[in-house]
Amino acid sequence: MKQTLRLFGQLIIYSGFAAMLWYFSASPAYERVPPGSALIKLSFAHGADRTADCRERTYEELMELAPNMRAPMDCPRLRRDVAIRMKLDNEVVYDDLLAPTGIHGDGPSITYRRFPVPAGTFLLELGLRDSGRQEGYDYVSRKHISLKPGQSLAIDFHAGGTGFIFE
User: Fold this and answer.
1) pTM higher than the cut 0.85
2) How open is the CA angle 109-42-144, to the nearest 5 degrees?
3) What are 16-49's pLDDT values in tens digits?
4) For residue range 85-119, what is the model confidence (pLDDT) as tens digits?
């Protein structure tokens, strides 16, 4: 009798757990973007220029170092901040100065931003500065985009001459 009650109790508990899993697997309905909207995702990791140029060490400097540390070039680790600006139909929607990652500030600058926008056609302008210049941008891209409801546009960046990539 005890065994039967224990099995019946386990059946009720497991059934309740299974019903809860079934309900939350389908409800509430998940939507990536609001109805009638599209999504623009800006995501990249980019290492800017170093803050100073490398210099060649003198013979005397090399002799002062331990034998395993005698690299002929002395290069600073610190990288510059990356400035990024995104405009949609001449309205600035994102403007940021991204600091380099890493303990010593020698890693890439990283961003990931999502911008829900109404579906339609837009002029998208992107600018990125990774050098020591104070004004303007090193990489600029202007593109007319047409987004349908529910569509997602991903924007990446590669410095090797390609610049911004739209997918």
Assistant:
1) no
2) 135
3) 999 899 888 878 777 778 888 999 999 999 988 8
4) 999 999 999 999 999 998 988 899 999 999 999 99
Sequence-distant (≥ 6) Cβ neighbours of residue 162 within 8 angstroms: none
CA distance 130 to 81: 7
Helix or strand or coil: residue 2? helix
Task: Give the residue from 39, 125, 143 showing the smallest Cα distance to 85.
Answer: 125
Annotate 31-53 with b (16+ C-beta within 10 A) or e (fewer): eebeeebbbbebebebbbebeee
The H-or-E segment that residue 93 falls in is: strand 91-98
Token code pair at residue 88: 């949609």
Tokens 């990283």 identify what position? 110
